[in-house]
Amino acid sequence: MSLAKRIVICGGGAIGAAIAFFLGRRGAEAIVIERHEVAGAASGKSGGFLALDWCRGTPLDRLARRSFALHAELADELGNPWGYRRLETFGGQAVESDSARGRSQRPWLSAKVAITGQLGAPQTTALVEPRAFTTGLMRAAEAEGAALRQGTVVDLVRGPTGAIGGVVLDSGEIVEGDAVVIALGPWSILATRWLPLPAVYGYKGHSLVFRTGEAIPAEALFLEYQEAGGEILTPELFPRADGTTWVCAVSGTGPLPVDPAEVAADDGAHARLEAMCRNISPALSAATIVARQACFRPVTEDGLPLIGAVPGLDGAYVATGHSVWGMLNAPATGEAMAELILDGQVRQVDLAPFAPGRLRTFDPARLRGR
Ligand SMILES: Cc1cc2nc3c(=O)[nH]c(=O)nc-3n(C[C@H](O)[C@H](O)[C@H](O)COP(=O)(O)OP(=O)(O)OC[C@H]3O[C@@H](n4cnc5c(N)ncnc54)[C@H](O)[C@@H]3O)c2cc1C
């Protein structure tokens, strides 16, 4: 059975690109509409850390395990242009004001850092470079027949029966489709004007990318770091296959600009992050910073994504709200959405915990001025 052939996907992040890829691979026509640039938001600036079993005991477990396996398969099948690598993962603690605790436990870490345990092994933790992953998956989707269009989605088209029949762009142009998927990350909140959807909020994070070359081995690190003023930061450090190391900390709930191109860092956030990095690692201290970034991850009220059909409306789907696991869960989300839209049922994972109808819908009147 095939229910839809031409599918319009709103948003060119990792989720939109993955849906386009799996639809294209099934022979459907996918059209991705992107306002800013593919991977221009969180999907190009996030950590790209992947874990097999860190969602165990939660409704995300099956999605995460399927996705972890798909990441390995995709990297293999598509030539790994996004630096997919397996790595060791450790946890540790550091206190800014501590004098050295003796000898450093790793050549790339200062003596202030105490490794407290191993959190993952190459069988269970991995990394991708997120911009290369998202743009690479979009290119692979295009090779399967998908199209990428620059444009801002401002409304949906409804047929005579009320079914969704495409999207309206800010230019006034209509892009028709048998189905429409909202994959706008935190900007999915704007789609509550067009569809009865729950809220999706943006949670801001700052990161730095250092050119570290060979100085840091394939070891990811999750730290608890106490600043001299007593505040606790929880930095994550991910050394990438391309010789850079990504570090994040300093989060917040600053307002989400309507235009993704206008996302900017909070005052002082990068300086604070840089000071912390220089404190915990001589390798980072010696390295050049090649990117200072800020981005918003999409979060729902119960912390679980929205993946599925919008209740009561033919042709309307949503895939967003992946929070801290959007890079990990993009492939299994793309695969499941392709199955749902083309076959009417999902085989590899269970989407029931992510049903959009489980949460109360958001009142778009609260978006005043946006
Ligand atoms: C600091 C940080 C670190 C993270 N680290 C990890 C990690 O290590 N591992 C992991 O698995 N996940 C991580 N994440 C989470 C992950 O990055 C996100 O869950 C994921 O990128 C969300 O992808 P998305 O496609 O839903 O949204 P986005 O990447 O936000 O994409 C949405 C797209 O929609 C476009 N858009 C917006 N409005 C419109 C419009 N009107 N019309 C058309 N297009 C529009 C935007 O330009 C954007 O490209 C991290 C997130 C942050 C913030």
Structure description:
By secondary structure, the chain is α+β, with helices and mostly antiparallel strands. The chain folds into two domains: 6-78 and 129-197 and 303-361, 3-Layer(bba) Sandwich (FAD/NAD(P)-binding domain), CATH 3.50.50.60; 89-121 and 202-299, D-Amino Acid Oxidase, Chain A, domain 2 (2-Layer Sandwich), CATH 3.30.9. Helix content is 22%, strand content 31%. It is built from seven helices and 20 strands. Strands 5, 6, 13, 14, 15, 16, 17 and 18 form an eight-stranded mixed sheet that branches. The mean pLDDT is 95. It binds flavin-adenine dinucleotide. The site of flavin-adenine dinucleotide has 41 residues, from helix 1, strand 2, helix 2, strand 13 and strand 18.
* Residue share in helix: 10-25%
Report how far apart the termini are.
41 Å
The number of helical elements comes to: 7
Number of domain units: 2
- Quick one: CATH superfamily of the largest domain? FAD/NAD(P)-binding domain
Ligands in the model, by name, code or SMILES, are: flavin-adenine dinucleotide
Task: Specify the overall morphology.
Answer: globular
Order of helices and strands: EHEHEHEEEEHEEEEEEEEEEHHEEEH
Highest CATH level, the class of the largest domain? Alpha Beta
Backbone CA Rg: 21 Å
Mean pLDDT: 95
User: In the CATH hierarchy, what is the architecture of the largest domain at level 2?
Assistant: 3-Layer(bba) Sandwich
Structural class: alpha+beta
